[in-house]
Write a structure and sequence with these properties.
It is a single chain. The protein is mainly alpha-helical. Helices cover 71% and strands 1% of the residues. Strands 1-2 form a two-stranded antiparallel ribbon. Helix 5 crosses helix 12, helix 6 packs antiparallel against helix 9 and helix 11 runs antiparallel to helix 12. The longest helix is centred in the C-terminal third of the chain and has 29 residues.
């Protein structure tokens, strides 16, 4: 069999497990924790802010800001493809709804309210107790205005990702049910459009057209029913992950292009930092420069994702004793992490620690608290569903055995 024939076979056909995709998923959610700790220290709007907040850290934030959520949707698309390869569309829709909507509802009712409460305490000097606030929260109170915007209660804050993921998953499930043969054709089309130079420049061209054409009129809102630019962007990444999930040729190509992709990402990052330092403060960028910045923004995003996938394919495509446990932990840690960061930061306010000390401490404590809660929930079958975990399956039993070995 020729090498070309081997490359074009799917991982399943080759009997190869693409472990690096699990590691990318673990890395992506870990990166999200670091990013949200960073949001506490930059001048951009966030739920609560450090007394030392400034623009100092912002250039580093731009390393991941253009692509961190897009990567999560791409990885989710990959996972969706493998799930639909094992389940019918109806089974997938039911499982996905249970695993996403229940944590979303629980998160909005229990996990997210402390974020909104501390936000109105810090920014509006709200004097009521937490229980007073909960009464307002669950009665759809509309009287809080922060930085000129109405605070909508109840809210999903960082859990907006779950609502979007569920919506995209249901669209795919319905289409899979109605047009099963079309997906095979679309996978072949996607394969042909992501060969050679096209795997770099065609996605950039599409994403640049979206950003130039939609961003000004439809800026990101994280509002499921009114977020057209984000939907066009994130659903594209979700579909790319879905249609390329089993394309071993594509993943091998990312490894071959990893250094070129990294260089493109670094050049794009330098330009974005310079642009933001000069024009973002003045707010008078010529239209041609603004459009060029949007092209570079998506170039930075796509080339960064290609580089990460390429390096992971080259160096992380191996199993590890903790991979299964960490993969199981990803979703619960995502649900918990932002509230844990905000509660920890609030407790540390009176300590007046320097950000260079406090920031890494917040990252460490967030991981420690979230992981500890995950290990506890993993041992209690009734609690697993509210954290997006399956019941007592082979995975959870295996993970629990590993915990026992570590204890």
């Amino acid at each position: 069999m020729s090498s070309t024939a081997v490359i074009n076979k799917t991982p399943a056909a080759l009997g190869e497990r693409l472990y690096f995709l699990d590691w990318i998923r673990i890395f992506a959610f870990g990166l999200l924790i670091c990013y949200h700790v960073g949001m506490y220290y930059v001048s951009w709007g966030w739920h609560i802010k450090s007394e030392a907040a400034s623009s100092t850290l912002e250039p580093l934030m731009f390393l991941t800001n253009p692509w961190r959520m897009s990567l999560l949707f791409l990885v989710s698309g990959v996972a969706t493809r493998f799930m639909l390869g094992r389940q019918s569309a109806g089974q997938f829709a039911g499982t996905r709804s249970w695993r996403i909507l229940l944590p979303l509802i629980f998160g909005m009712a229990v996990i997210v309210p402390p974020q909104a409460y501390l936000e109105v305490v810090q920014k509006l000097q709200y004097q009521g107790s937490y229980f007073d606030f909960l009464n307002l929260y669950f009665h759809n109170y509309r009287g809080f205005f922060i930085e000129g915007k109405r605070l909508v209660l109840p809210t999903w804050n960082h859990l907006w990702f779950l609502a979007y993921l569920w919506s995209y998953s249901m669209i795919i499930a319905l289409a899979w049910k109605m047009f099963p043969t079309a997906f095979l054709k679309l996978e072949k089309i996607t394969d042909s459009l992501t060969k050679g130079w096209r795997m770099i420049f065609l996605p950039i061209a599409y994403l640049a057209a979206l950003r130039i054409g939609l961003l000004s009129e439809h800026p990101p809102t994280n509002n499921l029913t009114n977020d057209w630019y984000n939907h066009a962007n994130y659903f594209f990444y979700f579909l790319m992950g879905f249609f390329l999930a089993q394309n071993l040729r594509f993943w091998n190509a990312t490894a071959q292009l990893r250094w070129k992709s990294l260089m493109m990402a670094l050049v794009g990052w330098i330009f974005i930092v310079c642009y933001m330092r000069y024009y973002d403060q003045r707010g008078d960028a010529p239209l041609s420069i603004l459009y060029f910045q949007r092209i570079v923004w998506v170039m930075l995003a796509w080339s960064s994702i290609l580089a990460l996938c390429g390096f992971a394919r080259q160096h992380w495509n191996r199993d590890h004793a903790k991979r299964e446990l960490l993969t199981t932990a990803v979703f619960p840690l995502y649900i918990l992490h932002q509230t844990v960061i905000i509660l920890l930061a609030w407790q540390l306010l009176d300590w007046h620690l320097a950000p260079i000390v406090e920031g890494p401490l917040l990252v460490f404590l967030c991981f420690a608290f979230c992981y500890g809660i995950f290990l506890l929930v993993l041992r209690i079958p009734l609690l697993r569903p509210i954290m997006g975990m399956a019941g007592k399956t082979r995975t959870s039993v295996s993970a629990a055995q590993k915990i026992g070995n570590l204890a």
